C-alpha cells in the first residue's frame, strides 16, 4: 500500500497535475457561455473529469516518449523516469488508464464528444514528437490546450459554435508564446541534440520577439471574442487585465536573464487564466444573457 501511495504521489508530481489550471479556466469560460450561466452538475462534473484525464494522459505520454531525451538533458535528468523513480512501463500504463477515463467521460457527455475524442487524443499525443520535426512545436502545444474551450462548448451544446474558435485561437497563441519563452532554457541542449524549437532556429532574442507578437495577437483575438459575445464593461476589464498581466510576465525575463522564468511561466499564466474566467463569469452573471447566434 505504501508503494502505491509513493508511486501515485510521484506520478502526480511528474505530470504536474496542478498545471491543469492553464487550460481549465478557458474551458470553463466556454462552459459558462455555452450554458448561458451554469450547466447541470452532471455535465460540469464530466467536463472536469475529461479535462483532468486528458491532460494527465498527455503529460504522462510526453514523459514516456521523451524519457531518453530527458535523461540526456541536465535540466530534466531528474524527472521521474530518468531518475528511476518510475518505470516506462508504469507510466505507459498510467497513460492508458487516463486515456480510458477521458474516453469514458467523453461518452458520458454526448455523442459528438465521444466521436471527437480520438481527434483530441491525436493532438495531445502528437505534440510529444513535434520538436523532432518542426520549430513550430510550440503552436502544436498551444493547440493541445487551445482545443479545450471548443471541446467544452461541444460538451455542453453537442455542436460547435464558430465564435468559440476565436478563443481556441487565442489560447493557442497564448500557450505557444509562453512555451517559446520556456524553450529558451534548452537552447544549447536542443542544438546539440538536433531538436527543433524557435529559440534553437532563430536565436533567443528573436524568440522573445516572437513570443511578444504571439501574445499581442492573443490580446487582439480576446478583443474580437469579447465583441462576438457582447462583453459589457466588466468583461472588457478582464481583457485589459490579461494585457497588463502579460506585460508584467514579459517584464520578469529577458534574453539575458531567464532566472525568473518559472515565475513567469507557471505562476503568472495560472493567474492570467483565472483572472479572465473571473471577469467573464462576473460579466455573465451580473444580469445579462449571451445572445445566441
Largest sheet: none
- CATH H level, superfamily name: UbiA prenyltransferase
- Rounded Rg: 19 Å
Please tell me the total number of domains. Answer: 1
* Order of secondary-structure elements: HHHHHHHHHHHHH
Low-pLDDT sequence parts: 289-293
- Classify the oligomer: single chain
What is the CATH architecture assignment?
Orthogonal Bundle
Question: How helix-rich are the residues, as a percent range?
Answer: over 70%
Give the N-terminus to C-terminus distance in angstroms. 54 Å
Total beta strands: 0
CATH class: Mainly Alpha
Which geometry do the CA atoms define? Answer: globular
Task: Outline the structure in words.
The chain is an all-alpha fold and 293 residues long. It is built from 13 helices and no strands. Residues 289-293 have low confidence and may be disordered.
Briefly characterize the structure.
The protein has about 290 residues and is mainly α. It has helices at about 1-15, 25-35, 40-65, 65-70, 90-110, 110-130, 135-155, 165-185, 185-195, 200, 205-230, 235-250, 260-285.
Topology:
Layout: H1 2-15, H2 24-34, H3 41-65, H4 67-72, H5 88-109, H6 111-130, H7 137-157, H8 164-183, H9 187-193, H10 198-202, H11 204-228, H12 233-251, H13 261-285
Helix pairs in contact: 2-7, 2-13, 3-5, 3-6, 3-7, 5-6, 6-7, 7-8, 8-11, 8-13, 11-12, 12-13
What characteristics describe this protein?
disordered C terminus, 293 residues, Tetracycline Repressor, domain 2
Amino acid at each position: 500500500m505504501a508503494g502505491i501511495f509513493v508511486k501515485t504521489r510521484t506520478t502526480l508530481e511528474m505530470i504536474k497535475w496542478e498545471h491543469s489550471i492553464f487550460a481549465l479556466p478557458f474551458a470553463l469560460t466556454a462552459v459558462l457561455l455555452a450554458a448561458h450561466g451554469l450547466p447541470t452538475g452532471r455535465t460540469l462534473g464530466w467536463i472536469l473529469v475529461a479535462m483532468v484525464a486528458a491532460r494527465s494522459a498527455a503529460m504522462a505520454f510526453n514523459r514516456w516518449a521523451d524519457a531518453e531525451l530527458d535523461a540526456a538533458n541536465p535540466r530534466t535528468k531528474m524527472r521521474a523516469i530518468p531518475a528511476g523513480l518510475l518505470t516506462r512501463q508504469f507510466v505507459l500504463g498510467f497513460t492508458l488508464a487516463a486515456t480510458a477515463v477521458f474516453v469514458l467521460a467523453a461518452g458520458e457527455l454526448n455523442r459528438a464528444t465521444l466521436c471527437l475524442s480520438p481527434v483530441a487524443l491525436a493532438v495531445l499525443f502528437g505534440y510529444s514528437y513535434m520538436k523532432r520535426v518542426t520549430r513550430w512545436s510550440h503552436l502544436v502545444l498551444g493547440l493541445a490546450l487551445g482545443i479545450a474551450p471548443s471541446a467544452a462548448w461541444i460538451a455542453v451544446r453537442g455542436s460547435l459554435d464558430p465564435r468559440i474558435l476565436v478563443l481556441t485561437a487565442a489560447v493557442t497563441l497564448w500557450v505557444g508564446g509562453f512555451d517559446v519563452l520556456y524553450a529558451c532554457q534548452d537552447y544549447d541542449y536542443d542544438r546539440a541534440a538536433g531538436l527543433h524549437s524557435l529559440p534553437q532556429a532563430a536565436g533567443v532574442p528573436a524568440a522573445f520577439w516572437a513570443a511578444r507578437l504571439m501574445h499581442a495577437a492573443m490580446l487582439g483575438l480576446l478583443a474580437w471574442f469579447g465583441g462576438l459575445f457582447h462583453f459589457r464593461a466588466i468583461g472588457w476589464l478582464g481583457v485589459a487585465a490579461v494585457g497588463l498581466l502579460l506585460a508584467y510576465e514579459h517584464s520578469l525575463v529577458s534574453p539575458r536573464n531567464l532566472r525568473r522564468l518559472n515565475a513567469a511561466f507557471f505562476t503568472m499564466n495560472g493567474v492570467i487564466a483565472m483572472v479572465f474566467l473571473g471577469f467573464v463569469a462576473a460579466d455573465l452573471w451580473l444580469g445579462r444573457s449571451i445572445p445566441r447566434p
